[in-house]
Amino acid sequence: MFPVKTALWLYLFLFLAFFDLHAQYPILTPFALSLGAGPAFIGWMMGMYSLTHLPGNLLAGVLVDRNGSRRYIVFSLITAGLILLLQAHAQLPWHLLILRAASGFALAFLSPACMTLLASLSSDAAVQGKYMSGHGIVHTLASVVSPAAGAFIVAEAGFSVTFRSLGYLLIFTGVMAYFSVPKHSKVAAASITPMPLSPKENSISNNPITTSVPVSRRYYLLPFFVSCSQGVLFFELPLTQTGSRSMVSTGILLSLLSLGALLTLSMFFLNRLTPAGRIAAALLGMALCFFVLASFHSVPTAAILFLLGAAKGVLFPAMASLFISLGGPSRMGRTFSLQSIAMSLGAFAGPVAAGQLRTVVSPYFIAFLLLMTALLLLPPRNAGKQSALQPDWNGRPA
Fold first, then answer.
1. pTM, rounded to two decimals
2. Burial (0-12, 13-18, 19+ Cβ within 10 Å), 108
3. Cα 316 to Cα 187: distance, rounded to the nearest angstrom
4. Distance CA 65, CA 329 (A)
5. What residue ranges of the chain have pLDDT lower than 50?
6. How far is 52 from 59, CA to CA, in rounded Å?
7. What angle do CA 31, 259, 338 make, to 5 degrees?
8. 10-184+207-380 under CATH 3.20.20.70, yes or no
9. Where do transmembrane segments lie in this chain (predicted)?
């Protein structure tokens, strides 16, 4: 029961942390506008948060494998909470830019540490996949209610009270993590021991196509382009909402996005399908949703965002299984660190590009092109050739 208990504690901390983070999405752009920032500056402000993820991700990959996850989970949560308390007193756009950059570095340790600890709770691929699916469901549940909640709190109490409340919530979560997350897990240590492979699995693991560094780097383009498209959405959606209740409507739309993801995450039978089909179908679905947002303004935005979220719910568990298979048990921290780096780069490039090109082309069309590029970069499923995305790339799909 020890791994299950640890996983439940982690899910609680992740829920509170994700609730806190997603609650800021619909209010950061209006807050920056209230400080006098323009669209281009807002793009840089949102991108800077992701850019400062990079040094943190690089450090986290090595440090988490060496020292365990607990201290870095606690550090990320408490430091990010203190930064939010300072953010409540920001007076100039540059204040917000600096604080967002500092928050990006602090939170860079959280995702690699949590996902490494979750993956190390078992050495069985199927169980690891279940833990990752639980991570996705918790993330989605938090993001369903938090955008609307953050927008309503701002509408009733103002920006300062909202940021202080979110900051205290993160600090409280960090203190809980200090007393609840174990320093070392015997199960995690055991998972580092190589497991005996069947002849079929052994031939796959020794395949240079699935173990060489170039293939791994190619796969890291997938989270980069996906994160780019998400950054474009989080930048553009608040700017397209008008009226006195624009923040509330943005929060509700983002909650609908998460509801769509929750729907497909709850369809556990999808995990029986090969990751190749799930990844390709999800990328195509997300790309078409962005194309509709850019070209057909008469289609209700709420319906498109719900479908976009449903595609995300299919994509992210498949990506998690992919990266578990790419890294060995003793390198999971580095693997998830590289994944986080790719997503940080994408989350930086997306809003910056959207802010600079918004007057030339619809940012949603940029996201469409990015996702179609990711789809085209997937390895071909040639007959007779073993590919890491073919049905046998992971003999035990999560």
1. 0.65
2. buried
3. 25
4. 10
5. 1, 185-215, 381-398
6. 12
7. 70
8. no
9. 72-90, 96-119, 131-155, 161-181, 219-239, 251-270, 277-296, 302-324, 336-354, 360-378
